[in-house]
Amino acid sequence: SQRPPGSAHWPPWARRVAAGEEVHYTIRVHNPGKAAVRDVVVTKRLPFGVDYVPGSAVGPASSIEVSIDGGGTFVKAQRVAGAPTHVRWTLQRPLPAGATALLRFRATFR
Q1: What is the pLDDT of residues 58-79, one digit of tens each?
Q2: Is residue 105 a contact partner of residue 89, using CB atoms and an 8 Å limit?
Q3: CB neighbours of 106 closer than 8 A, spacing ≥ 6?
Q4: Distance CA 35, CA 37 (A)
Q5: What is the sign of the dihedral through the CA atoms of 48, 24, 39 and 66?
């Protein structure tokens, strides 16, 4: 395996991803507090060089929206006509104290 420029460590399981390959992203949202948190909204800008896989975003009791205009406006993920630039999860229930929510989506490399 090659190390990326400027990288001190390269995990033994890592490898280069080729165009057209699918990658899985997981965002961990943790509530370290002593009380539940309401109205949790997480927005993720898609990394450069990837295309969102339609319908792939999931999260616990989440409303999922995407933006095709750089995060200016969002629509329900099922109604998008274009290439998303951002994915947004709105948790419909409070995130309990000490809990972690896993938000996921898939993308393909260009």
Answers
A1: 999 999 999 999 999 999 987 7
A2: no
A3: 22, 23, 24, 25, 52, 53, 56
A4: 6
A5: positive
